[in-house]
Amino acid sequence: MVPNLSETFRRFAKNECENSSELYESLSYQIAEDVDLIQLASFIPEGQPVPNLFFAATQYLLIDSQDYLKNFYASFTENSFSINGVFPYFKNFVLANQEELKQLFRTKLVQTNEVRRCAYLYPMFADIYEKHQMPLALIEIGTSAGLQLGVEQYHYLYNNEIQAGNQQSLLTINSQNRGEELPAFITRNPVVQTRIGMDLNPIDLKNTNDLKWLQALIWPEQHERRSLFNKAATIIKNLDIHFIRGDAVEQIQAICEQIPQNQLIVIFHTHVANQIPPAAKIELIEKLKGISTKRPLYHCYNNMYDTNLHQDYIVANKIHSERILGKTDGHARWFTWV
User: Fold this and answer.
1) Same domain flag for 292 and 260
2) What is the largest CA-CA distance in the chain?
3) Are 285 and 173 contained in the same domain?
4) CATH number, domain with residue 262
């Protein structure tokens, strides 16, 4: 038994699964006490969230399987079985597929893509477009599959009454604004001409296996997230997005130099900066300031210094804080407009 991993699964069950996934909560507690499964989990590389990758890899293999275990997953059946008695079937399936799971542990990453976060990005981008009346060049750091790069392609419904974005869209994102009244200009959709997604491991939604992996990362009971993801994926696959593999901090200056001067650069990232080392954060800011000596740009982000969402305008080597949103739900079910 690996004590630290056992405790990791217990914390995961209590802190993350409780009231979110009855299946994963139950399985996590039982995995924590199982020598064989803890030993298998120890093959997950350092730096990856172990329970998330363990469950995602298992669900990924189940997608094309006819194993009895699928009956316990709400992601595969409308009338899933009670979780009572699930563990023996789960353990049997996992141990029978442990070599395939080890391969997934080595090659896959936990890269959830939460399209609902566009609900708080959209007013920011609409504000930027309204102020400058220039087409936007969106550059996302840590883009994963690029769902947020389709921000103006989605339809938004705020507080069940205010509509914005593309009202003909396949996807409607509902969110509650708990702050100041949203500005009237959000009904005018910003123009986006360039979309660039940067990631150490970008995901291609046109690739069937990549698409299945992102679906496997969604917890079985999260039906709304699954629906939002599938609709967003359909939209994103038809957009012209330039994906760049590699370190965003190293490449950001060269990429910005390729953007036409008649477009306004907006660099953004959500729930990514906490994975950037402190020295690299400083380097990123210095590079953005350097770019601003030739052309102004915006930087929208959270988790750099705090959990709030920031909207900075950088021009002539100086950073101007234009907006800091109040408290915001991690999945943007609600946010606080300021």
Assistant:
1) yes
2) 64
3) yes
4) 3.40.50
Q: What percent of the chain has pLDDT over 70?
A: 99
Q: Is the Cβ–Cβ distance between 314 and 298 less than 8 Å?
A: yes
Q: How many domains does the chain have?
A: 2
Q: Does 66 lie in the same domain as 121? A: no
Q: Which of 52, 76, 107 is the last residue of a domain?
A: 107
Q: What is the mean pLDDT of residues 94-116?
A: 93
| Domain interval for residue 83 | 3-107
Question: Which residue is listed with tokens 């705020």?
Answer: 158
Show which of 78, 107, 136 is a domain's final residue: 107
- Beta carbons of 265 and 234 less than 8 angstroms apart: no
Q: Are residues 100 and 119 in the same domain?
A: no
Looking at residue 2, what is its pLDDT? 57
Q: Residue ranges of the alpha helices (H) in 111-200?
A: 118-132
Residue 113 and residue 145: Cα distance in Å, rounded? Answer: 7
Beta bridge partners of 193: none
Measured between alpha carbons, how far is 49 from 18 in angstroms, rounded to an integer?
17
The gap between the terminal CA atoms of the chain, to the nearest Å, is 49
- CB 18 within 8 Å of CB 68: no
Alpha-carbon span 295 to 301, nearest angstrom: 20
| DSSP E strand stretches across 73-154 | 136-141
- Counting Cα atoms < 13 Å in the Cβ hemisphere of 88 gives 2
Phi, psi of 334 (to 5 degrees): -150, 155
Is the CB of residue 294 less than 8 Å from the CB of residue 322?
Answer: no
Residue 255: CB atoms within 10 A of its CB come to 18
Q: How far apart are CA 57 and CA 209, in angstroms?
A: 12
Residues linked to residue 177 through DSSP beta bridges, in sequence order: 335
**Distance from chain centroid for Cα 258:** 26
119 and 265 fall within a common domain? yes
The pLDDT-based confidence of 3 (bands split at 50, 70, 90) is: low
Q: In the 8-state DSSP scheme, what is residue 176? A: E
CA angle 114-119-120, nearest 5°?
Answer: 105
Q: In terms of domains, do 54 and 139 share one? A: no
The chain-wide mean pLDDT, for the chain, equals 95
As beta bridge partners, residue 292 has none
